[in-house]
Amino acid sequence: MSDLDAFRLETRAWLEENCPESQRGPVTPDMVIWPGKNQTFPSDDARLWFERMRDKGWTCPDYPSEYAGGGLSRAEEAVLREEMQRLNCCPPLTDQGIGMLGPALLEFGTEQLKAEHIPKIARGELRWCQGYSEPGAGSDLASLQCKAEDKGDHFLINGTKIWTSYGVESDWIFCLVRTSNEGPKQEGITFILVDMETPGVKAKAIDLISGASEFAQVFFDDVKVPKTNVVGEIHKGWTVAKSLLKHERKMMSELSKGVLGGTAALPDVAKEYLGSTDDGEITEPLYRDAIAQYEMNMRAIGLTGYRTHQEALARKMDTNVPLIMKYLGTSELQIKDELLVDMMGLRGLGWKDEQFNESEQRATRELLFNKALTIAGGTNEIQLNIIAKRALGLPKGPHS
Amino acid sequence: MSLVLTEEQSILQQSAAEFYSSVMPVTAFRQLRESEAVFDAETWSQMVELGWSSIMVPEELGGLEFGLMGMGILAIEGARTLAKSPLTTSAAVSVAALNFCKPSEQRDALLSALAAGEKMAAFAHLETTQFKPAIIRTQSASAADGYNVNGSKSCVENAQSSDVILMTARSPNAGFSESDGFILLIDPKADGIEFNSVGLIDEREYADISISDFNIAKDEKLEWNDDAAVAQVLDTATVIAACELYGCSLEAFERTLEYVKDREQFGNKIGSFQALQHRLAHQYTQLELLKTVVYDALSAVEKNRKDAALAVSHAKALANDTARLVTTEAIQMHGGIGITDELDIGLFYKRARVLRTMWGDSVYHRSRFASLSGY
To answer: Does A262 score more than 50 pLDDT?
Structure first.
């Protein structure tokens, strides 16, 4: 038996022993375990599950163990993920610190920043949010204007950030700020960490068409931030941001796999609302065809993710393929949302009254909320621009 | 599940790409078209020497037993130059049909002959112009010293140029929508068999076959391994067609990419226009998905996985849709020259258009995928 096989057996046994029944999926949004200074848990089981995973470093299994991570190799991490999927385990901790900031700090942070922040991310002690977009800087992110003035040992920040997920609930924010107006717009941007309790920081929730307000606008009014909080070099934050965006897109393409709950399966909904034959065949052939098309596309996306994983292990990875995942995954999820509501008819369009059941309400809310997915983290049009340039080597256009 | 080629498979892919581009480029297809020949015997014997005719034949019968994945790689690469050879009809589909038959002296001898390139075979199953694989009306009844065969087959590829036709049939007492388990070895040059050639837009050899009062010997009837055998042969043919569609699409896409980087209008390379860039980028995403799904289906059939039928229907539906998108866009992006016979792009469209219909269109395969998934 190889070491990896032995690791798999051990991991399987440990998860079966330590993951409480209530923490096995399907994972619904109210089961999500968030970090924070004033961390609360959906249930006692959730706390237990979180603490057990935290103590093994498996909230961040690929982080080095010196920073409270699991210290697992890439192959071991894949095994852990597969075994967690097998039991349908709820993620023990969900945060933007884990998948985005942590890897960026490991790559670009000073020893001091790593030692201070990474263990807190892994142990769920702080909740993080991201300050990238601004009202005037969306797809054209590099034109951002939020200003950080050099005051010797600190920066003085003035300006605003928008579309900050969980901006109201978070403890710290990682930001892109403008430290210089000279040269190309990508230069003169700095990546910096800000404690949201610093005087002058204010977060205001944004009401969305879905009725949720996951996003916030964050205002900075003469906010003093020590220079030691800069990640990477001053004026070179764009490099850090680009590396981090890759992680963000990967995370978003994983969202489409229904990691965070997700809506009911299309075939089940079709049978319930449209009917089925004695053989269990959906009676409406056009919906049946559309569902098969969606299910095929999701299967193809899933297998392609698996192919890139296999290619990486064989050191034969085509680095262009991960570029396509966010575009494909988010597009398919919106196709699913629309199909679900189509099949539910008016029952899929409830807004106010109690008569709509939980899965109907979720279908409606996701339909509306998921419109964000093809916009956030780089719109699908931006994704296609990137594919055209990097994967296909197409020449720069007059407007790109 | 293997979605990455092994070292040996990668080497095969490289040598296939080199062989097809040097020995059988699209100009070779055009020459065959001029001469109205079906194949070039010389190139086929080179392919036999490379071992390609024996890839799917068991080792004990003189084959390489390299697997369907290897054959799929050859089908993909061959489609990129529109190569015409007996490879897919004889070395892939007919060999698969024989592999799924019970061993017998006749079967083993034929497999060895196909591996050695001494004979070519064609597989004749479908009887309708729409894809209805369950219908078998061709009958073989017991007669003195053998069987008496009557029936017809629709649009069989390479039947006339083959040395033997593997024909599915049923016995008179079976219902017409079920096979009761055998194939017949038919000599295309014998009396009692009639061919009506069917010239399709991809300019390959197809013919309708009618056969009446045709006598075969007892040992010219081969028994299938089991009830699933016919479906397994059809799945092999279907996944090979998906491979060819992938090859055609990839080639048309790469040629188009090169063209838009070169062609100028309004003082700019047309490939710099976002209206084209986004469409090409989308096509790239579909081709990457198709590559995955085709490899998965090849591996599923090769390893006789439980979900092989589902994987094959997935591959064919996605191959059809991607080929439709990519080969029509290839013509559109080439503009006027794209619809001329002088340029190869239209030939890729025509080949892909035929393959999309062969072995089931997307609606058929999505429906099969849905049934196999329980809805």
So the answer is: yes
